[in-house]
């Protein structure tokens, strides 16, 4: 398993790669909170390349979503894979995390 080895902040978008779990939550938390504090835009967490996630990481996203809301922003998760969505439902945190809606293509 490869922990989130790469956290790339591109403006208000944070791109994560690898496994997002308890070992990487501190670095991801710092990146998210810094992005919320620095940018006036809403924050997007791109999870296209995140293969697995644990309950601690999901709790971080839920708490960061609330923190962003209190700061007058939205935090959305982009492209969570099946394993991420499944864990969000298993932990009952799916309702606490906003997933970016993408229009279906024909």
Automatic annotation (TrEMBL):
InterPro entries named in the record: MlaB-like_STAS, MlaB_ABC_Transporter, STAS_dom, STAS_dom_sf
Domain of life (superkingdom): Bacteria
Stretches assigned to the STAS domain: 13-106
Family matches, as PROSITE patterns: STAS
Classification via SUPFAM superfamilies: SpoIIaa-like (SSF52091)
PANTHER family: BLR2341 PROTEIN
Name of the protein: STAS domain-containing protein
Organism of this sequence: Nocardioides cavernae
């Amino acid at each position: 398993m490869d922990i989130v080895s790469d956290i790339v902040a591109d403006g208000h978008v944070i791109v994560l790669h690898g496994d997002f779990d308890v070992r990487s939550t501190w670095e991801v938390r710092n990146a998210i909170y810094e992005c919320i504090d620095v940018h006036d835009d809403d924050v997007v967490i791109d999870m296209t390349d995140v293969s697995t996630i644990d309950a601690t990481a999901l709790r971080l996203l839920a708490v960061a979503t609330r923190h962003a809301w209190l700061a007058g922003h939205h935090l959305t998760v982009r492209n969570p894979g099946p394993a991420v969505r499944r864990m969000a439902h298993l932990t009952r945190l799916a309702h606490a995390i906003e997933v970016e809606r993408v229009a279906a293509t024909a």
